[in-house]
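Researcher: Next sequence.
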Amino acid sequence: MHALPHLAATDWVSLALFFACWAGYAWYSEHSQWGAGGLIRTSQNYRLTWAQRMLEREIRVTDSTLIGNLMSSVSFYANTTIYIIAGLVAALGAADKLINFTAELPFASAGNRELLEIKLMLVLASFVFAYFKFTWSLRQFNLLSILVGAAPLGQAGEPGIDDYARRVAGANNLAGDDFNRGIRAYYFGLAASGWLLHPAALGALSVIVVIILFRRDYRSPALQLLREPQ
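Model: Next structure:
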């Protein structure tokens, strides 16, 4: 922490841009009225339809299989994140060797050991955040499995069926949203690694990540497919 006062103005500006891009896009896509038509909130409508169809089925093996597939994806990312975190912790222990390596790269400005550790800690924090989101998503998918197992049988409009469908869809949405947040943390973790090369790389990669996320959430063929009339 003694190196914080020695950060250059470009470091602070790039850091501010990094956090503004991350927090700003999260708010835009999840909470703002302008981001309502994106992939995240469009998927939530389909989760409600899925819950309604599930309650109409007496045999729900298909639904259990689909939830299992979702949990497998989240588990894969959670396990992968552990290895990334372990690698970053190892890199913190070999900071001197990393300084020598980055010194040979063009435009590299890792600085002294303390500065390098701060930069690595930003990357590490991004992936630790992702790990917490993935594991919480996995736990919420477990709760979704319980709700599916306890689900009554009925058609839409019957007493209690619509409320239960919204409850199942809500649990699915919570788990899916945390999974999306974990994926977003991966993107910004990669952007944070640009700080190891140069402060400008951190800011530039943060903006590039926002552009990529926006295009995939609001301009992708996948979103157009979901918007097609059923």
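Model: The chain has one domain: 56-224. The chain has a mean pLDDT of 88.
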